[in-house]
Amino acid sequence: MMMRRSTLLTGCTALVLALGATACGGGEPVAAGGGDKSLDGRTVTVAGVWSGSEQENFQKVLDAFTAKTGAKTEFVSTGDNVSTVVGSKIEGGDAPDVVMVPQVGVLRQFAEAGWLQPLGADVEKNVDAGFAKVWKEYGSVDGTLYGLYFKAAHKSTVWYDPESLAQAGVEAPATWEEMLTAGHTVSDSGLTAFAVAGQDGWTLTDWFENVYLSQAGPEKYDALAAHELKWTDPSVVKALTTLGTLFKDKQLIAGGQKGALNTDFPGSVEKVFGPEPEAGMVYEGDFVAGVAKDQYQRTIGEDADFFPFPAVDGGPAPVVSGGDAAVVLKDGKQREAGLALVEYLATPEAAEVWAGAGGFLSPNKQVDPGAYADDVTRATAKSLVAAGDTVRFDMSDQAPAAFGGTKGTGEWKILQDFLRDPSDPKATAAALEQAAAKAYKG
């Protein structure tokens, strides 16, 4: 559905929204950056999936916005089903002003439903200056920018206990084959190589995406993500075959396939960094560090570290990312103040507030690396930014939720079945294609 470009960001409104600009008619300046409290009396409602420490840290960013503009903020945690919660609030006449959307597919769904306000020239200028082009593309629908990617995840990191690898005489591998060889060496030393969180199907999609991006390349990755390439393509079968070499090797997976299928994501981190370790390594995003630090008192960079997801079959090392995009709803009661908030989120200053608190990466290349709380997070952030336009967004998050984001069905369920029995990659590819065709058609 083609979206009609709004005219709200013209004339006086554009000036009101420009951080540091002077309001029309000789009034008081409206400036998040200038700290003139010109949005006093406004309350911006922000909805997002975050809770716990993530919500607390984001609140620090919102408080910084309040200190500059005078606009109060109210955060509403939606849980994982953002689209359902936001849809019901819109229908009930209680739409939030800003939503932090965690999936490209959901952002597109909101835009195609006509729910979103274009972010306008001021935000677009900040995005062009600070972000790789790919982040603008993921935030746009039909060439119009609707989403500002404020928080990113680096989902191409393998986390490990340095002592376990050192005792086995293993160094960080650079290739897939080296990683499997290193895994066997770790297992031979008495500790299983990998904890795999097979109970959570989303972790298995991340395994596949990293292998596929490195092995097949970004063009095919994009085509598969858009379902312009069928899942029965030989490149998919090849990636599944490669992944199957790990899944079928009981020496490499803590508890074997059955154990993996009974391990959720927090449990996989516990198996490496908990009080009774069962494995030396766990693959997942940079957010592993937060669990290791907060739950098991590991010091990041000392007794918890990472190496980049290794290159596969001579391809480049992959950089798969995820992220949360700030969007503004047309039906929000404080749409203009909401747009001002998003413009503030596009600045390095806003990102640096959360960077100092930890558990955060920004795709904004203008963020000072010194703002991050530790060297490992700093290195992860630099890797994400350095990848530039070669970064690819989590493929399952780009897909319709029925295929890429629903427990017990679609890609999650099919890859769990593949973990249980990886003997027939062609059959798995066929099942994935059948489910994708139905979901994309719907």
Automatic annotation (TrEMBL):
Keywords: Signal, Transport. The keyword Metal-binding does not apply. InterPro entries: Bact_solute-bd_prot1, SBP. SUPFAM superfamilies: Periplasmic binding protein-like II. Residues 1-23 form the signal peptide. It comes from the Bacteria. Belongs to the bacterial solute-binding protein 1 family. This is Sugar ABC transporter substrate-binding protein. It comes from Streptomyces griseoviridis.
